[in-house]
Amino acid sequence: MSLSTSIILIVIALIIIAGLTAYALKLRREVRKREALRAEELTRARANCLESLEAIARAMQAGQVDLVEGGLRCKVLIEILDASLAEDDVLGAFGTLHGRVSHLHTHSARKALSPRERLAEDKERIAVEEEMAKPLQQAAQCVLESMPVWYREYLGRERPVAPTDLGQAL
Q: Which of 60, 75, 77, 130 could connect to 140 by a Cys-Cys bridge, CB 3.0–4.6 Å?
């Protein structure tokens, strides 16, 4: 192989290497951008989850929402936020509630029940609510007391001062 052929092959190889390097850098920037977007989305989802949890817990404390309904919603939000929180002694009341009423019909399935069946389920739901009122109120209070800690832990910032500020926290 002649010297000129060797030089041409080396130049072609360097051009290919430079092209592949540029492409790799472009892909790396794209990955970083996607990771940043994913982190931002996770933060936004956690902030929405915390905001909803606080609103529901306040409504439960004020008697503005049925304790069973509020407890079931809190259970779901807590599991979304961090499944290990559901194992807490006080917050576990939401999971206990779910276990007690999960067999009851909701939405269109409830509408399909006969009036007698709906009444029987309502009585059962009311009995569970009366029996679990104190643990559910304590769990709602625990949620409210945990908000500052959860904001620091899951969002890396302090909780907004007033609940009305929550939407602007991002």
A: 60
Q: Given this model, what pLDDT does residue 168 score?
A: 47
- CB-CB contact of 101 with 123 (8 Å): no
Q: What percent of the chain has pLDDT over 70?
A: 94
Buried/exposed 70-84: b ≥16 CB within 10 Å, e otherwise: bbbbbbbbbbebeee
Q: What's 133-148 look like in SS3?
A: HHHHHHHHHHHHHHHH
Q: What is the DSSP letter of 170?
A: -
Q: For residues 158 and 140, what is the distance between their CA atoms, to the nearest angstrom?
A: 20
Tokens found for residue 96: 């206990």
pLDDT digits (tens, 9 = 90+) for 130-154: 999 999 999 999 999 999 999 999 9
What pTM value is reported for the model?
0.76
User: What is the phi/psi pair of residue 139, to 5°?
Assistant: -65, -40
